[in-house]
Amino acid sequence: MRFRRGLGLNASDEALARAANADNDAEREFGVPLTDDELSELLRRDQVIRDDAPTARKTVVDSFGGHMLSGVWMDNIGGGLLTVAVTGSPQAVREKLAKVVDHPTRLRVVVRPHSIVALEQIVTDLRAAASKDGRNLSGMRLDERTNRIQVATTDDIEETRRWIAETVGAGAPVDVEPGEVAPVGTKSNNSPPLRGGQRIDSLDGWTCTSGFTARGPNGYYVLTAGHCSKADVYWDQVGTPIGIADRSDVTGTDVLRIPVIVGTALTNEVTLAYTTGLDAYARYQTITSSQASSSDFVGQVSCITGQNFSDLRCGEIITRSFDVSVRDSDGRLVSYTNGREVDADCSGGDSGGPALRSGQARGIVSVKVARPTANDTCVYVHIDSAMSQIGVTDVLVAGPVLET
Description:
- Keywords: Hydrolase, Protease.
- Residues 218-386 form the Peptidase S1 domain.
- It holds the Pfam family Trypsin.
- By secondary structure, this protein is an alpha+beta fold.
- The chain has eight helices and 27 strands.
- It has three domains: 2-111, no CATH class; 116-178, GMP Synthetase, Chain A, domain 3; 179-404, Beta Barrel (Thrombin, subunit H), CATH 2.40.10.10.
- The protein has a six-stranded antiparallel β-barrel.
- The radius of gyration is 21 Å and the shape is globular.
């Protein structure tokens, strides 16, 4: 129901019944039943994002300057329109974009007072001041659609508002809400080979979820969240040895790499569901590509999975710029500014799990944002920047099974 409402789909009992009776690939694509028309519409929105969103963003910046761009997103509630927000000259921008996009009838240009550059500077100033003043701003969302910054904190709300006004000005576009950002750190092992979406355990007692198998300069790796452990810790896939982690980064990203023991089988699959017993079965999604970090947009649907999931959980990307600053179990500061917040929940043990969509690797599950007055959400670090920082060249897309 949360998925349907978030994407602007009919949430009536009749619509749910029609979706349940449909014979299509909706559950494989989005983790929920959809009617044929709904599935076609969501796939069409995907196509509009792929075709036009990068072009629209680049055209505004190149033709009008970075100070003009306030955001680019898919407006799912508004019927699937690609929305470009600018700080001025909307008619000129609309005329320019209509000539270069593939789907001009799906394009809308709106005006917002603050550019993304200006909002990012406010986040930077708040983070620096919070560190100096000892403030707990564990999560900050740069919301392109509202053109505001939303701060989640466990500190006193009114006192935090006063401090923000003193720090960045009383008129700054910043909202404060109660909320806690916490690392979340699967399924039982059904059998080797190594793959994403599986429960993995460390020798020092921590449980996380494997993200993807990957290739690097010195062989193959399993990727998971950096806050799951420091380097030099041994990991296994519930009895199947993986190896000893050799790198764990929690600054600028949140990713850990585990070199796979030579001779171990691994595959480019991600486990979506698994049951035991006489009727045991497993369902996988094969990873065939990896998303570039510049190719995702607010309003695009991403999915996550982890040890607490029986399948995919999907939702729209709320922001591409979620700022995280929180301590892990080892006392290290997990900090980055470009987290992807998705409208889906995750829980302890899901850390490191894959973010994906339709066979495309998109990220590594990092933290849960718990809000007493709103839906809990999940944040993942993008796979592109994570691989670059951790020294991995590419997610494994060849298969079905490779021997290292």
